[in-house]
Amino acid sequence: MSAKSHSFFNPSRELYYSDVLPALSIAFLNDPDNPKIYTTSVTGLSELKELEDLYIDELNEYTDLLQQKVHSLKLYLEKLKLEKLENYEQRVQYVSNPLKAFGLLRRTHQDWPKWHNYTKSDIGAAKLIAMEQLLAKAPGNDDMMEAYKGMHRIEEVYDLEAADMAKGLLLGKQYDAKMSTAECLALGDYMFNQSEFARAAKWYRLGLYYNTEYSNDVFKQIYGFESDEIRKMFLIARIKGASVDDVPIYLRELSHGPHTPLWKSEKGIPTAYQEGCWGRLPRRRDLTCRYNSTTSPFLRLAPLKMEMISLDPYIVIYRDVLSEHEIRLATDKSNYGVMFDTWTYDADPRIKLERISKGGMLYTKELSVVNKRIEDMTGLNVSLTDELQMANYGLGGHFLPHYDFVNLTRRTTLTRIFETIGGDRQVTVLFYTSDVELGGATLFPKLNITVRPEKGSALIWNNLDHTGQPDVLTEHGICPVIVGSRWTLTQTLAEWDQMFKKPCNTKI
């Protein structure tokens, strides 16, 4: 067995959103070699949960027709103990937990083919056909890889212990979710193949600790879990991550409980990005909250609650500026409209694209009032960019620090595209259309500012300074979502639209 790439399951920069992303993403979505991706949004994971419920229904009916194999199949269903979720809200609640969402992805990607092969026979042929049709919709390798990345981000960015994650303890809060041997070993394989050997060893040890749940011979045959093989991979990971001279110590570690720290596995110094996502950055005390009644004539009649976050660059939060009706309308339009994979984009073809979420462009007469409200909050025009961008983040969904401005003076290849939409992005308006239980904060690392999602609020900042030049202090990112569903509605205001709105520059 090669130590370079291993699996117990044997599965056969400058970043920014761009208005050209929808075409790019739809092209990938329509590519037959790139099947539907569930992991990148809670909406997709909810669909997958519904698909799993259908699959379990078919499997239950099929087992009623079997005689010889019914005992082993009943054991499988008993082990899953999955409650059928009757509606969308229940499915969203289920897949909002990263442990349940990861388990869902792993089961549907890795378990279904194994159980399907085991159950093939002439008995219940109609049920087998039905399950084959569902299996065709199961996650592919790309989807499973996104789930691995999401779990890795959650563990790494928030500095979580594998043993805590496995038992459902996330950032000190206990959840009703636990990881199985299969989930632990799957993450061990992924970490090993990413050369994260210390993390891999922890997951392998957890898999060994919980391996009693696969003591049935049929389960061993299907999953291929052998304790000796798991111990071997643990030792290989420890040797590759440290030294072969310490093998006796590694053997003793196997007898320890999963919460016992590994020898010589000290943690590094946290990055500014991590500390920001942890919420440890100090808050400024010299800024104020007030009712804004001056930006537009309408606000004199109905002022809005505004909190100043930064003076330079200008960053503010407006509270309670979206109604429940508007949020529901936008979410419903997204759920029943076209939601595509959104990607990071770079003009340099050497930089690899990365999925970050699912999104869609919204425009309806009912939501036009939101654009009018943006004009009231900013005092600027939304004339050429009336579409709003909806985004939903899935398992460990994030966006690395990036800029919203394009800097057309340096990126001349994009000039023609952005000329059609009014020039560079002057202002970004980010509406939070959901609360997020854990994670999902917006982080400005160069300003030591962390903003946690609050349903109905709007975060607004200038991307260009008073001279019209890109402001590098506006670099921002999205911390990985741990638990919950992060929905946002975004609008960007183009600089040329503000010709008669933006105050003249007096500091040239």
Automatic annotation (TrEMBL):
- The EC number(s) attached to this protein equal 1.14.11.2
Q: Which Pfam families match?
A: 2OG-FeII_Oxy_3, P4Ha_N
What cofactors does the UniProt entry give for this protein? L-ascorbate
Q: Which residues form the Fe2OG dioxygenase domain?
A: 384-496
Q: What class of enzyme is it?
A: oxidoreductase
UniProt keyword list: Dioxygenase, Endoplasmic reticulum, Glycoprotein, Iron, Metal-binding, Oxidoreductase, Vitamin C
GO CC terms: endoplasmic reticulum lumen
Molecular functions per Gene Ontology: iron ion binding; L-ascorbic acid binding; procollagen-proline 4-dioxygenase activity
Localization in the cell = Endoplasmic reticulum lumen
Which coarse location class applies to the principal site listed for this UniProt protein?
Answer: endoplasmic reticulum
Instruction: Say if the entry is tagged with keyword Iron.
Output: yes
Q: Does Chaperone count among this protein's keywords?
A: no
Q: Which domain of life is it from?
A: Eukaryota
For this chain, the family text in UniProt reads:
Belongs to the P4HA family.
* Described function: Catalyzes the post-translational formation of 4-hydroxyproline in -Xaa-Pro-Gly- sequences in collagens and other proteins.
Name of this chain's protein: procollagen-proline 4-dioxygenase
Organism this protein belongs to: Drosophila lebanonensis
